[in-house]
Amino acid sequence: MSEDFDIRQLRVFTALARTGSHTATAALMHVTQSAVSHGMKRLEEQAGCPLFHKKGKKSHLTPEGRLFLTKVQHVFESLKEASAVLEGALTESRGKLHLLFTSSIAHRILAPVLREFRECYPKVSVVVRFEDTPQSMLEIERGQADLAVVLEDVNFRGLTSHALFEDELHFIVSPMHPWAGRQRLNLSKMSSEHFLLYRRSSMTFQRVEDYFLRNGVHLSSYVEIPDFEIMKQLARLGLGVAVMAPWAARKELDEGSLVSIPLPRHPVRRRWVVIHQSGRSLRPPEQTFIGLCRMACAGFATEGFPESPATGIIVDHGPHHHHHHQEEEEE
């Protein structure tokens, strides 16, 4: 038996099995009755046995024909499934991906991530918007975006997160700022300092505010700024103390136009993640995007901080706590 069956003849075969009529089959398949007859004769020769027997004007399947029909139907079902898989893959490779970023992380990783993503999925359209973590969480929950790069939150209900990296907030100041050359930071006098903080709606502002409250520091003078680039410009001009992760100011720290000072006493650590709705499978483009984000962030958690005069600072809580200097240094 030859296995080189013609797919067109197999379709004619299934049509004839369904109609039992050469005339109806010819009309259904848009061929002549002669083509139906010759095609079935050729198919039976390949099969090595009769597939139909005539009874009046009707063609009926033989036992071998019924068995063959079952196998042919399975073949067509498999072809249909394969076509659906290819169609789905094509749709994914030409679809649209809605992404949310916080502005700080976008400045560092968005360009390289999108460059590599385009190489993998040149026909996928990408829509990017900048939102802070609370708003991003809300939009992901509502299905208004596919993925969001945000800070981890304990309120990730109904959301799935994929870890990227951890960082720690620092004071970022001009080299001319008094703190840049001090070996001791007086927490009791921090209330008189002017701070440059990211906007109040952000999780970073909440974490910074909690830090100062925990250490008894009242923020009497600060400005909320919606962009880290502007924060760095103001810090370089000596117009305040910015609070951000060192990776967000890597260029300025490397060139020496800014100085990084670890927050005394209680480090403020954060975890960056990619989130999406729970209970759904990620499409291949989404999986690729998460992987590219991890690659782009690979060095953030381990970036070395440049040596500065403020390294190894001692915390001073004011005139009534001088005897705790050594203890605070060792915490």
Explained architecture:
Helices cover 42% and strands 21% of the residues. The radius of gyration is 34 Å and the shape is rod-shaped. Strand 3, helix 5 (103-120) and strand 4 form a beta-alpha-beta unit. The protein has three domains: 7-92, Winged helix-like DNA-binding domain superfamily/Winged helix DNA-binding domain (Arc Repressor Mutant, subunit A); 95-165 and 272-296, D-Maltodextrin-Binding Protein, domain 2; 170-267 and 304-329, Periplasmic binding protein-like II (D-Maltodextrin-Binding Protein, domain 2, 3-Layer(aba) Sandwich). By secondary structure, it is of the alpha/beta class. The strands form four sheets. A five-stranded mixed sheet has the order 4-3-5-13-6, with helices on both faces.
What is the helix tally? 11
Under the CATH scheme, which architecture of the largest domain would be assigned?
3-Layer(aba) Sandwich
Into which percentage range does the β-strand content fall? 15-25%
Q: How far do the termini sit from each other?
A: 83 Å
* DSSP, total strands: 14
In terms of per-residue confidence, which ranges show pLDDT below 50 for 5 or more consecutive residues? 304-331
Percent of residues in helices: 40-55%
Strand order of the largest sheet: 4-3-5-13-6
Note the overall shape.
Answer: rod-shaped
Notable traits:
D-Maltodextrin-Binding Protein, domain 2, five-stranded mixed beta sheet, disordered C terminus, 21% strand, 331 residues, Arc Repressor Mutant, subunit A
